[in-house]
Amino acid sequence: MKKGDLGIDLGTSSLLVYQKEKGLVIDEPSVIAVEKKTKRIIAIGKEAKEMMGRTPRDIEAVRPIRDGVIADYTIIEKALQELLRRTRPKFSFTKPSVVVGVPAKVTSVERRAVVEAALSAGASKVYLVLEPVAAAVGTELDIFDSIGSLVVDIGGGTTDIAVISLGGIVVSKSLRIAGDAMDEAIIKYIKKKYKFYIGQATAEEIKMRIGKAFPTLETYELEVRGRDAIMGLPGNIRINSEDVLEAITPILQDLVLSLKQVLEETPPEIASDIIDRGIVLTGGGAMISGLPELFIQETGIKTVLAPDPRTCVAFGLGKLLDDDSKLERVAVNSK
Ligand SMILES: Nc1ncnc2c1ncn2[C@@H]1O[C@H](COP(=O)(O)OP(=O)(O)OP(=O)(O)O)[C@@H](O)[C@H]1O
């Protein structure tokens, strides 16, 4: 088998590409601007994100992945074409083989569609790896031994909770709630409590800068801009960490409940491995402050945030590019 050349993490929020021998070569927002009629790509990543909400009538800026599921295959195919073009070495005509991360609960039809899209975008061979498995490989966990590991991968649109042993998923649960749902909850909360409208980008900034998931952590304040819902005029408002905690509590409760369900379904031998090894948090959504503390309090199990949570999937795919036999073991489309 020819080793893979590119590892592609197509996320709801971010688009990351790991290129063999080069490392992470693309890390951009997962937004694509296309001409409506022809679906011709106008811009991708940061440039396309800036166009969102302010595009001329014949251009639309879209997120090709929604809730962890591919929303538009034509656009994905074009986006993959563009990524392959950007990463192709000069004067090279050989087609790259690619490893693509896919959410744990994708159906076989969706898997086939991703493979088709990558092949018609110009890949020579396509391997699909489940995102929580790639995320675990991207941390320091050895998922190929017989000791079980528990990874909670919280992205923008989806959360995957997976128990992994011998390179495969033993028990898992996917939720359609993650970092973006926290932003939505903050918007709703501020509207209700302060009668004040803020946009999605402001909500995300609040979450990242002063958000917390655990009550005893320090509280900070942040002044943000928006629009007064009663007067209808632009204005400023001060929000604090307690507001964020209260806003996102229902989401945190859902995450904890699902985590407990996965633990309940885990075979006893593996459950005891997890108590020894602990829970590892990956994905950008896991970066809200205090999440490890919350999971420790709720499960009694040691929990750590992976060193660079956002890039775990891409780095995991990168590690697999270097190891044919491990890639063969975890690729889900060859089975
Ligand atoms: N410092 C931070 N604190 C809290 N949340 C953060 C932080 N940095 C990033 N995020 C959140 O992480 C989420 C994106 O994570 P990530 O890039 O891992 O998602 P993705 O892989 O694109 O999504 P998915 O796995 O759902 O397809 C966003 O909701 C973003 O707001």
UniProtKB/TrEMBL annotation:
Protein name per Swiss-Prot or TrEMBL: Cell shape-determining protein MreB
Family listed: Belongs to the FtsA/MreB family.
Pfam families, alphabetized: MreB_Mbl
Family annotation (CDD domains): ASKHA_NBD_MreB-like
Domain of life of the source: Bacteria
Keyword ATP-binding among record annotations: yes
InterPro entries, A to Z: ATPase_NBD, MreB, MreB_MamK-like
Entry's Gene Ontology BP terms: cell morphogenesis; regulation of cell shape
Subunit structure: Forms polymers.
Protein's cellular compartments: Cytoplasm
Gene name linked to the record: mreB
Residue sites binding ATP per the record: G156, G157, T158, E204, E205, I206, K207
GO terms of molecular function: ATP binding
Keywords: ATP-binding, Cell shape, Cytoplasm, Nucleotide-binding
Matching PANTHER family: CELL SHAPE-DETERMINING PROTEIN MREB
Record's function text: Forms membrane-associated dynamic filaments that are essential for cell shape determination. Acts by regulating cell wall synthesis and cell elongation, and thus cell shape. A feedback loop between cell geometry and MreB localization may maintain elongated cell shape by targeting cell wall growth to regions of negative cell wall curvature.
Gene Ontology CC: one annotated term: cytoplasm
Organism: Kosmotoga pacifica
Keyword Transferase on entry: no
Major site of localization recorded for this protein: cytoplasm
